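Possible race condition, two jobs.
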Amino acid sequence: MTRVVKQEWHHKAAARSLGHLAIGSKQSEHAKFEDAIIAAGAVPLLVNLLGSDQPGVQALSAGVLANLACGSQQSRDAIVAAGAVPLLVGLVRSGQPILQEAAAGAVCRLAIGAQQDRDAITAAGAMPLLVALLKSDQHHVQALSACTLRRFVRDSQQNRDVITAAGAVPLLVGLLRSDQHHVQALSAGTLRSLVHDSQQRRRAIVAAGAVPLLTDLLKSDQAAVQEEAAGALLILARDSQQGQHTIIAAGAMPLLVALLRSENPNVQARSAGALWSLAFGSQQYRDGIIAASAVPLLVALLRSDCAAVQEEAAGALHSLAFNSQHCIDAIIAAGGMPLLDVLAKSSSPAVQMQAAGALRCIKGMDSSDCKIM
């Protein structure tokens, strides 16, 4: 079949056939056909076809490479080594939607792998182009772009600066209004990753109107959307009076308390963490969280099998118990003391620290650290 790829009139058919083989109906089949395609020397030929003057051939070839890149690191290494990255980035730059979507899909899947693959994509100038694709009117392209950018913002401060400078913040905030759940979740998650280490970017996101939109997403019936929205609010509330005030004013607090009842551990952890960030702000906020009946729900989460849920719930109780006899009484009434005693001996140092801190606040042994985050 790879010999057929060399014949111009068979390019589309061969690329399409290789694409079907690269997908496979089962994971074991995918690995088998992936290995066969690479062993047959098809990758360099497919990369060569990215430079074709036929958009259909280019798009099909990019799609096959995307399917291959979903597999092993060996496949991704072969694609990068064959010089695919500059050609794929060129297709993203092309302005033709069919080529941009196919190439962005391949770039997204190459970014799954090793750091050197993402470095190659960065060196080819992909990030500003991916930011521009957030403006697409195609939901799939928006999602691919947000997903890929999220992988890059996690890598380095430099990447976060480049992506911010390219205008990503207002575009991602705008996508929170999408009617597509996966676009909402990916946009909220990318914003969270973009700002986790920058107070300046947090202020920019708040100023761009993200908080009311994220608050609305807490009402979603999709756990992935709830998780990412709560996670973004968690970061925006951290060490920021402006962020905390805006979140409270948007009405997020009772929604976060309600999400403590979720059956999804990730939603539970992010919601408890957001309440913890708010509780760290002021006594007024702590009183509001207590009045919203958060304490019994947080105590119930101490029973979770998930260490992240235990840590966030214990941390929230740790901060809420600061200077609040009412909260302490509520923790005791909800049966929190024996649960905190158990978690203070957890194998997780983070869980230990927050549970032990909450116990110190409750027992009045040392209130000076009761608001530690």
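Job #2 (started ~2 s after job #1):
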Amino acid sequence: MEFRMLSPEATISSRSDDYEVGLEECFDLPQPPLFQPINNNNNTFNKDELFDLCIIGCYGAGSQFLQSSILSQTKEQLTPIASITINNNNTIDKNSNDNNSGNINNNAFSEFSLTSASNQLKKNKKIEDLIYLYKNKKEKTILFIDSGNVILQPHHLKYDTIKETHQQAYLTYLYTKCLLENINAKRFIILDSILVSEYQYGNNKNYHISPPLVKMLRTNKDKQIFKEESESQLLPEYLESPNLMSGLAANLLTNLEQEGKCGLLFCSLEENHALEPITMKAFEKVVFGLLLKTAEEENDNTSPLSKVLSTPIKYKRDATSHHGLYL
């Protein structure tokens, strides 16, 4: 029986998980997602530009909130300036003796077929998350990133095999690295959700709570920089211990903390059986408030952004993609 240690860059796991027995850890690693600027007549992406705000919607509630409330409502005001893409046929074979030569394994995700993420990858040769720019007359620049296509993280992902879990963790790590190496913003806002069955209200395990409810995590730098009383009235309460966030949202916020950047993570409470409109609608107060404040349009009812955010928004119920375990 052979014991061996995994490469530290091949997984994001605890030390105990770095030692595995047998062939369970022999899987192919996906190549890093590619950051690709989009050339257009109006705006050209500049890697060195410091944006005023960057809002990232993670798979599920965060992604669908952005799609329904902003991306579909402000098409004329938004400009696609870049994308983060991945090709499912370009994968590094970890066990190949000739990795340095750039050999590619076209069946990389064949072992990743149990999750909805892999099913999506097998159907599409190229998957991308688009990055949109909003720029107003006051030269305020805001980025919107729908991160619900490349990194799929349904709530039942924790029940996958070790192979699938490590593949997803590694891809999440690569995605986070790709995003933060190419985008620099004064502040990042991350949107995700937490299941009712996983949420613990303080020390009372028997206390029943249901949506709508939004909780928050933030970096220390964000606490130091943004202290205005008007903003504190917008922000929800902190996510209590022992509740934990995972996946892309946790990865992004952790890296922002390590890099000393301003970051906020808002998580909305989500029903176990389906992603209900009330879960996404719960984001509106805090996200719209911070959005208008950053754009300096909170008192301007004639601005394009104010007009869109002031109109009623319809969210779609989703009982399939995020809750396969319960079907």
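Residues 1-24, 90-124 have pLDDT under 50 and may be disordered.
Logs attached separately.
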